[in-house]
Structures are given as structure tokens and as C-alpha cells.
Amino acid sequence: MQAWQFTNTHEPLLLTEVPEPTAGEGEVVLEMKAAGLCHSDVGLLEDEGWLSMLAKRPITIGHENAGVVAEVGPGVTDFQVGDRVGVCPTTAAGAPGYSFDGGFAPRMAVAAEALVPLPDNVDFLQGAAATDAGMTSYAAVITQGGVKEGDVVGIIGLGGLGQIGAKVALLAGAEVYVAEVNEKVWPLATELGAKGVQKSITEFEDVTFDVIVDFAGFDTTTAQAVDIIRRDGTVVVVGMGKLESTISTKSLILNQARLIGSNGGTKEDVAGVYEYMATGQLNPTITTIGFDEIPEGIEKLKRGEVVGRLVASFE
């Protein structure tokens, strides 16, 4: 079979003939149906700092995956041939495309412990996107932020993650306000169901926030969230727009704020996203490409030309 493989930084992906995988102990082989593309794929191709994360080279990349179980290895009892699944990239099995050959190929071998059942009414494109962007957003809002019905929630940044995070908070029963500097995105905030949208989280003068999730992470955005969060409120930082932030320790102490970082998520978070998707109310925007278009898709991500999440379809 042919696979898109990474060989080295500053080198293009190569379409390489590789052996078809077989299922070892505790593993399954997936017939790939969809594989998401991510800005981390851009980083891998451009930044030598990513090389230490790779188990081998060349390696088939692709860490956002959904497919159908095509083969079951010894010791696997929870899944069978024909099951629709997504692959959580944060389990002890490691991340596809980093710890082992990933999803930019027709078939992929993966430990069964990484699999999350995909509901029948959730398509494979959404199923793949949920394993990274969906999982990360859900974990930040629900698992780390503890958002629940009746909470007043601020979402900073309405990009790919922020859009999902805002909708997850709304589906959890929260009242949501969005801070987004790009006014072209404001109509989307209204479409999602947000009660208000401004350029800065500080512009909601009469709103008291229980939780603020910063999907931008541009230094001042985090500092402002700490300044205005209610006493005993929670600020969750997801975005890494800048790698440092200067916050007021006075605000942190007087507000007795919980300041939490959120990185990725778990199988339970992926399953939570699937539950919301199955209702039909969580339907993130997806741009679809074919398997042959994966390298150009990564270039489009680099140029900022992609709307929503970018997913390669194998169907």
C-alpha cells in the first residue's frame, strides 16, 4: 500500500510503498476512512524541535484518525471486525504518526486501548476531527473548566478550537460570551448561540464570569481573564499564541482564581464529543480533501487558507 511518510524537516512528504500492517497482540488494523490534518503537521515539517518526538524515520504521519476495524489481534475482546471507531492520540499506546505509523495510509495498526466507539450517526470526517480539536476543546471546557448548566462562560478566540469549545459550553447549558479580535468571525458567534461578542473579554462590563477559557493565549488575553474572573472562578488556558504571559498576582489572589492549563484530553473526552455530535447539535465546519491532496492540504494550513478543520477522506 502507499503511505505519506515524513523523512526529515524541510523535506516534502513522500508517497512511499510500505507493507500492509498486521494486528499484533492487543492490536487491531483499521481500514482508514478519514484522517485529519493539523497545524502540528506543519510544525513537524518545518521545526527540528519536533524530531525528538518521533519513534522512527521515515514514519507515516497522521494523528487524527477514524475508520473501521478490519482485523483483530490476539487478546482483543472489546472490538470486532466491522466496528466504527476513532483513535484517541493521548493514551499509553502513544500518538499515531509519532509513536507509530499513523493514518495517512489506507490501513493502520493501533492498540485497541486507544479506540473509542464511533456512533453510527456520526460520520467519519467528524469522527476524525473529534480526536484532536474536539477532544482538546471538550477537555478544556468540561473536564478542566468544569462548565455546567447555568454557568456564565467566556470564550476567548473563535478559531477551530474556540468554535467547538463555545458550542460544547452551550450544549452543557451555559450562557456564553465570545471575545474575538477578528470581526469577520462575529456572525459565527451569534450563529452558535452566544449572548454577546466583543473584541476583548474585558468589554462585557455587566457580565460576571464563572469560567473563562482562553483559546488564544496571547499574553494579555490570559491576564485580562484573571483580572475579571469572579471570586473562586476558573480560568483555563489552552492557546499558545505567545509562550509567556504576565498576570497580576493581586488579581489572582483577590479573585482567588483557579488558573489551569489544558493540554489535549482523554478517551473519555473524545467519547463526550461523540455524544454531542450524535445529537446533531455539534457539527464543526470541515473542509474535505482526498488522500492524494494531503501534502497540498498541509501547505494550505500553513498559508491560513483552511476554513474549519481539514480532513482527508478515504471514501
Automatic annotation (TrEMBL):
Top-level taxon: Bacteria
Keyword Nucleus part of the UniProt annotation: no
Cofactor: Zn(2+)
Pfam families from the UniProt entry: ADH_N (PF08240), ADH_zinc_N (PF00107)
Domain Enoyl reductase (ER): 8-312
Keywords per UniProt: Metal-binding, Oxidoreductase, Zinc
CDD domains named among the record's database cross-references: hydroxyacyl_CoA_DH (cd08254)
EC number of the protein: 1.1.1.1
Reaction equation(s) it catalyzes: a primary alcohol + NAD(+) = an aldehyde + NADH + H(+); a secondary alcohol + NAD(+) = a ketone + NADH + H(+)
Family: Belongs to the zinc-containing alcohol dehydrogenase family.
Protein name: alcohol dehydrogenase
